[in-house]
Amino acid sequence: MIHEYHMTIGGRDASAKAFLDVINPATEDVIGRAPDAGNAELDAAVEAAQRAFPSWAATPWADRQAALVHAAEVINENKEELAQLLTLEHGKPLAEARREMDTSRRWCTSLATLELPVEVVSDENGRRVEVRHEPIGVVAGISPWNVPVSSAIWKILPAVLTGNTIVVKPAPTAPLTVLKIGELLRDVFPAGVINVITGGDALGPLITAHPGFGKISFTGSTATGRAVMASASAGVKRLTLELGGNDPALVFADIDIPDTAAKLFRSAFFNNGQVCVATKRCYVHEDIYDAFLAEMTRLVAGSLVATGTTDGVALGPIHNKAQFESLTGMLDTAKAEGLVLIQPSEIPSGKGYFLAPTLVDNPPEDSQIMQEEQFGPILPLVKFKDTDDVIERANASQYGLAATVWTKNRDLALDVAARLDTGNVWVNEPLAFSPFAVFGGRKQSGLGVEHGLRGLEEFTNSKAVTLNFES
After folding, report:
1. Is residue 85 located within the same domain as residue 206?
2. Is the CB of residue 368 less than 8 Å from the CB of residue 334?
3. Which single residue of 35, 96, 145, 276 has CA 20 to 30 Å from 384?
4. What phi-psi label fits residue 41: left (phi over 0), alpha (psi between -120 and 50 degrees) or beta?
5. Is residue 216 domain-shared with residue 278, that is, in the same domain?
6. Which residues are catalytic?
7. What is each CA distance from 22 to 32, 319, 363, 418, in whole angstroms?
């Protein structure tokens, strides 16, 4: 019998009249059912969050920090069960699912060390000016399917630490692990502080238009982000948008080829390339291009594509059918354009959304694979000769999320990093997320920031208080 999961509203189980089937992408079998919430369930969740807000906002900061530490302990105690469920519903290798639980636990303990104290702007002659950070109210967190647990945690923690309450909606294709975490956290936070609801594509617009939310934190595609922004504008809701990217890597001629190729392989193919900041365009200096391409080909050939629970698996299936069809369509276009595709890996036969990891050899800049975000295991490698030219090409995108620079020359790295029009630049390492470092995109890659003190401030209203007691 297929298990039906429950939402968390007001600290209790909640269901809906309809359910969504959740598919294992490795087998295409239904492995669970999640409630398909509508207006009634959304209203109930918002009302529960509103009831909980006054007392939670008044809870001392130290007590809220302690709750985050307790949440980390609960996640760690249930790590294996949660990781197994995540691999089942998402498809990612079990080792990666375990790391996602570790990342979530680490974020809990790390954010628990942060504070937003009153900032004293001036204090002299009996006149004092302070800037205070106060909770907004009820926050909506809408998280994606690619890293469903981490992305939900990255919304929950800063919201509740700063005194807000939250209603979280995970993606309809990967909601089960987040629903389970919602159940586990009922014993950590007061009823109504954290509410988790699920639903199909119709639920998102209901959330963004709901008058009960003071802020929306959304992670997903740029197209959907624009719709969220338009919907939220009617109520002038506070927004944080983490959207798409077409993230370049710039590989200079002085690098160690095996070491850099191994790191860039992870940057491009981690989570099957289904990461907003995965390397999606790899510019390689012409002096090392052939040797670098050969090493990348060797790494791809040695990568096992299989179900997420298979020993030694490097890449699981693509997460869902729609994304699988988008990627196969992109490969068909590349073939029609006459591009050179390198696909040395075997993939499982039969059911499952398995796709061979693919390198594209020196495609033109105006090809689809260079212009659009693939969000999958397809990496174009392109030759460059001149530094100024490659920076211009890297910046010639509607996106500006992340970039990586690979060189042994510190001065060159700093110069290139300063000239790249992205919110994040990582030198000689990929995917360098930190709970203490700000993360955000430029251009159509997002609005606002996450993580660190600046990320906490995004979940607050600032208030300037001037006190004049001059004699």
Report:
1. yes
2. yes
3. 276
4. alpha
5. no
6. 242
7. 5, 11, 37, 44
- Cα dihedral 20, 192, 57, 456 in deg (nearest 10): -20
Per-residue model confidence as pLDDT tens for the chain (471 residues): 899 999 999 999 999 999 999 999 999 999 999 999 999 999 999 999 999 999 999 999 999 999 999 999 999 999 999 999 999 999 999 999 999 999 999 999 999 999 999 999 999 988 999 999 999 999 999 999 999 999 999 999 999 999 999 999 999 999 999 999 999 999 999 999 999 999 999 999 999 999 999 999 999 999 999 999 999 999 999 999 999 999 999 999 999 999 999 999 999 999 999 999 999 999 999 999 999 999 999 999 999 999 999 999 999 999 999 999 999 999 999 999 999 999 999 999 999 999 999 999 999 999 999 999 999 999 999 999 999 999 999 999 999 999 999 999 999 999 999 999 999 999 999 999 999 999 999 999 999 999 999 999 999 999 999 999 876
Whole-structure pTM value:
0.97
Considering the domain architecture, whether residues 364 and 401 belong to the same structural domain is answered as yes
Say which residues have a Cβ less than 8 Å from residue 348's Cβ, sequence separation at least 6.
305, 306, 307, 354
Instruction: Count CA within 13 A, CB hemisphere, residue 192.
Output: 17
Q: Do residues 301 and 345 touch, judged by C-beta distance below 8 A?
A: yes
Distances in Å between the Cα of 463 and the Cα atoms of 123, 175, 257, 425 are 17, 37, 52, 32
Residues 236 and 258 in one domain: no
Residue 279 structure tokens: 């390397």
Q: Mark whether 315 and 373 lie in a shared domain.
A: yes
* Domain interval for residue 362: 247-436
Question: Is 2 a domain residue?
Answer: no
Query: Looking at the structure, do residues 55 and 77 belong to the same domain, yes or no?
Result: yes
